[in-house]
Amino acid sequence: MRLFPRPRRLSRYRQIAGTLARHGFGAALGHAGAGRVFPIHRGWFGSMRHETTLSEARHLRLAFEELGVTFIKLGQILSTRPDLLPDDYLDELGKLRDAVPPVDAVDIRAVLEAELGTSLDRCFAHFDDNPLASASIGQVHAAKLLDGTDVVVKVQKPGVPERVAEDVEVLRQLAAVAEQRSQTARRYDAEALVDEFEWQLRAELDYFREARNALRFAEQLAGNPAVLIPRIHWRYTTRMVLTMERLEGVPIHDGEGIDAAGIDRRLVAENCATILLESIFQHGFYHADPHPGNFFVQPGGAIAVVDFGMVGQISEDNRFSLVRLLDAVVHQKPDAAVDALGELGMRPRASERRTFVRDMRHMLDAYYGLDLEDISASRLYRDLTAISRRHSLPMPADLALLFKTISMNEGLERAINPSFNFLRTAEPFAREGMAELRSPLSVARRTARTTAESAILMPELPERAWRILRQAEHGEFQIRLHPEEVERAIDGLRAVLNRLAASIIGAAVTVAVAIVMLANRPPAWRIASGFFLASGPLVVGSLWSWALWSARRRE
């Protein structure tokens, strides 16, 4: 891993460093209460002008906006990780909807013709140069095919893949440096987070992948009349161009428009939740960007869903684990809840399991006596992430995305119908999942899979056992310990030794003073002996205080 930037990256490094430094300086001044003396928010040092001083979280959001597409996407992904960031940062980064000024139509037409390999006149009867929407990666234009079909064309902006590749390399190098210098970065595996971010961002850059996602949704939800998925026109779709059927309707956040169209809000909220729940519990493949701009209400209450760039997947085993978690919450079983979270990837260290179970028990106390339909999914998500953050236990990216999607979906439905409860709608799906989990067919299927895996492993066991024995015989057998666990054990041992030493020294001082007093009996020794005998406990107390202070300073 290179820890120093390549020459061609230096200008981008300077830009990133300058932007972060400027906003970091502004945040520090605001935190110190010096925002009025040094009004960075008034446009000093090249910053945009704002009427009031800015919070640290808002400074970070503005810095990401200034740095462009990669950092906007990074902020959006971080806004789904309450296990990594506090609430005020999540709220600010959640505002990064990457609405940016559009690229000139001449450049968009050039991309289209280069990707489609022909002039636009041979593809479209009409192409509107004024975009319907513009984001950091691409922009959407209305068009009409030669046969008169109304479509929307999503076009990737020129230069975006090159900028993303450059920025990801910068982030990877910064993560490597951070892991070398920060225990927190190592605990959260900063390099793995960058790898996950790169994979998700590259998936959004591939419009072919997005088109396949739309096709998969259309196939798995074909029997659900509550959802419409746009048809993809593959002839005019490439990695940088996506052409799909144009679906219109009332934006789902337009409550007045829904009422004016005579559509039942309760039905709209129910349909929106059902689409997500069926995708999760029956198919394990779901739309992970429930932004209001991606859902349009049809006259009968059905939902037209667009934008399939961000999707999530959950395996069959994880679906069962999610059902187990919900069952453990309802039936007040903290050990079972911790086991379910472990199956989902949130596994506490063995030394911390007892405290983790204790915190889970305290959390479940708040849900005592409630049925599943009485519990808020958003509240459950916040409580779980609070425990995760308290134990410095990062939530797996796929699990964080799932919980965040459910929470956002519930918020969207409550904006439509304030009395709506997401988990009430989810209860039949969870009950069906639990019944499937306990069904003889499911048990037999899992048993068969375990047996097959064991059959594959069994022939290798003797060879592996002999290899271990030979290594032990030749002194080559090694046991690897996690550095953080070793360091924590050493710190604990050091603290115990310090306190033991303090106790021994204090006792020695006390005994020595008593012997001297009894042997010499100096004048007024009865008066002085009280003072000298008290010196032992005083020494012990001082040494204990020093030991505790030094241990806390190391922590």
Explain what this protein looks like in three dimensions:
Helix content is 60%, strand content 8%. The strands form three sheets. Strands 1, 2, 3, 4 and 6 form a five-stranded antiparallel β-sheet that branches. The protein has a four-stranded mixed β-sheet with strand order 5-10-9-7. It folds into three domains: 7-98 and 162-202, no CATH class; 252-438, no CATH class; 485-554. α2 (56-67) packs parallel to α4 (87-93). The chain is built from 21 helices and eleven strands. The protein has helices at 10-31, 56-67, 69-78, 87-93, 105-116, 160-181, 183-187, 190-205, 207-220, 255-260, 265-283, 316-330, 334-343, 353-365, 377-390, 397-416, 422-438, 440-457, 461-473, 483-520, 525-554; strands spanning 124-127, 133-134, 138-145, 150-156, 227-228, 241-245, 250-251, 285-287, 295-297, 303-305, 311-313. β3 (138-145) and β4 form a beta hairpin. The model is unreliable at 1-5 and 25-46 (pLDDT under 50). It is α+β, with helices and mostly antiparallel strands. It starts with 9 loop residues before the first helix and ends with a helix.
List the defining traits of the structure above.
555 residues; alpha+beta; 3 domains; 5-stranded antiparallel beta sheet; 4-stranded mixed beta sheet; 21 helices; 11 strands; 60% helix; 8% strand; globular
